[in-house]
Design goal:
Blueprint (H helix, E strand, L loop, with lengths): L2 H16 L4 H25 L1 H11 L7 H21 L14 H33 L4 H9 L2 H19 L3 H18 L12 H8 L5 H10 L7 H26 L5 E6 L6 E6 L4 E4 L5 E2 L1 H7 L5 H6 L5 E3 L2 E3 L1 H5 L3 E5 L1 H5 L5 E2 L16 E5 L4 E5 L7 H14 L7 E4 L11 E4 L4 E8 L2 E10 L4 E4 L9 E7 L3 E5 L4 E3 L10 E7 L4 E7 L7 E6 L5 E7 L3 H17 L2 E4 L11 E4 L3 H19 L5 H10 L1 H10 L9
Antiparallel strand pairs: 1-2, 2-3, 3-4, 5-6, 7-19, 8-9, 9-10, 11-12, 12-13, 13-14, 15-16, 16-17, 17-18, 19-20, 20-21, 21-22, 23-24
Helix pairs in contact: 1-5, 2-3, 2-4, 2-5, 4-5, 4-7, 5-7, 7-8, 7-10, 8-11, 10-11, 11-20, 17-18, 18-19, 19-20
Length: 645
Amino acid sequence: MKTRDIFYAILLKEQIKLRKFFWIPFVAVLAVVIDAYISYKGVISHKGATALWAELIYKQSIHFSKLSWVFIASGMLFAYVQFMPECKDKRLRLMFHLPVSYRFSIYSMISVGVVLNLLLTLSALLLLQLLFFALHFPYELSFEMLMTTLPWALVGVISYLAAAVAIADSAIWRKFIFGGMWAVFVSLLTVNNGFFSYKEDLWIYTLVSLLWLFAFECAALETKGDALKIDISKIACFLLCVISLLWFVPNFYNKAVKLDRFQLSGFFSPISKEFIILEIGTEKMAFKDETGELLSTVAAHKMLPFMFSGNVEKWGGFPIQTDKGEITYELAANSVQSVSVTPQDVLAQNLPFHLLYESAPVGTTLETPPDVLLIKSDRVLFIDCVDGAVNREKSEKFTQALKETGVLFPIQTAASNPSNLKPFDEGMFLADSANRLFQLKIVEGEPYVRDTGTVMQERVLYINVDEKLKRIFYGAVVTENGVYLNMYDGTMQKLPLVSYDPKTDAVTARFTPFYKSVVKKDLSDKNAPIELIAADESFQTVRTHEQNIPDTIIKKREYVSYGLSFLSPFSLTQFSYFSNEVLLQITPAPNLIFAGLGILFALILYVGIRGKKIEVFAIFAICFTGILGLLAYMAFGQVGKRGRD
């Protein structure tokens, strides 16, 4: 019998098993897309089309997230229908007696389920694209939304393979192990952090997930029990187990030890002319002076009248006389303006859409615009939120106004404040390709473009706009080497930071009538001290202070790191202070000495378990993965060589 004939026979057999059930997942996908359509139309009917666009652009709400569970359930359904008849009473052994390689038979069967999952993904993408087309979403928006489904499709294939393995494996305890590994991968691939948040590392997730293709072979071989010199499928299962433990063990350990959350900040007091340190724990908040002496809440609040004006007024603390002048309750309650910049803000890849309000409305409220502004490489477009049509006349008028004022496309970065609850509108600020800063507004329906006269010396990474009644500054402008405040007086004031790294530093600046307080934290080192800087009205530094993390907190963190390092020389993390993306990062243990002790402990246990029957692969794996490698070995036994069951 020819191999081709056997392949056709296998396909026919799978078709017979699946013919009554294959359509169910496709109907479920259609139901989810209809549900998303109803959800979108509900937002439009209650709040308007622009509100829906704003929700998608700024919040990146995913109304079709139920698709992830459809993919998971569909994969399990396909696996159950395909493999339950094959594996009942170990019938899978018959596959090894076919006149072809057992791998040919295994992967022919698996390919049917994988192809069905891929067809399900394509149908979901097609239906979603039809939905987005019906709602008139442009390519720049719909593409990001469509790509959001890719990790869900991947976890659907994993669910199919994991269910097939659980059905085929003869050992109950191994079924639970595979189930736990499947649950880890579901957790890894179903994080919703905005549209296409896996963009950066999806290819790594895909490569790791390919190991699941070999898992069914491992389970099938368990039913046969013949000796093999090199068992690739078992090595794949071993690696899958290690990867799952790299994620599970650190997460479980961190939850078990319940390390208290701790934050450190500070404010400059116009009364004491020193910084008041604020320590925030899980259940309490403490104030201290620069020397570390504990302050009562009342005393601390009275020294910070601009931050706690309500309490100071209640205690009869106003007016307060200072060398800068008198502080009244009215002055304290309405004079603070602040801005914060984090690495996630700076490095985020936002969608190129903006809401641009009419800055000179007829009444006192800002009316929601009927369109959104889309920044292209050589122009701006205004897209109607109801029908998706481009307003050609308005687009050309605003593009021409920008170019006539000197804007050089492409625009590097731009920002506006999308809230309609702000007291007034300042439009948007943008940095062109020459690092020049411009302001764009709509005034009585016409474009207003202002060249601020500012040319940044470094590339502009981030801009924000935050309208406040005090009108001290429009917002922040961040470059590769500094944080600037875009002032209403036309100047660009650089915050008095000794150094600044946009990839690691979080900065908060608070303005009060007499002083400015700046706090900088290095997020790359949780035990690093925070930098506190106070400046006067002319941005001249009047006081600096470096506040260390309390030794008790550092010691607690060290003790926790000892245990974590002993358990695992590496950890798998998905999130970072420095990115909005869902990553796949393998990070080393915080304490290498305890990591080495954990590896040594695992090796001793392994040698004690195996005696003289040690395997080179297992020794090598445990040297890199420590106790996690030992646990994986205990789950799957010998990796390099198989004996009879």
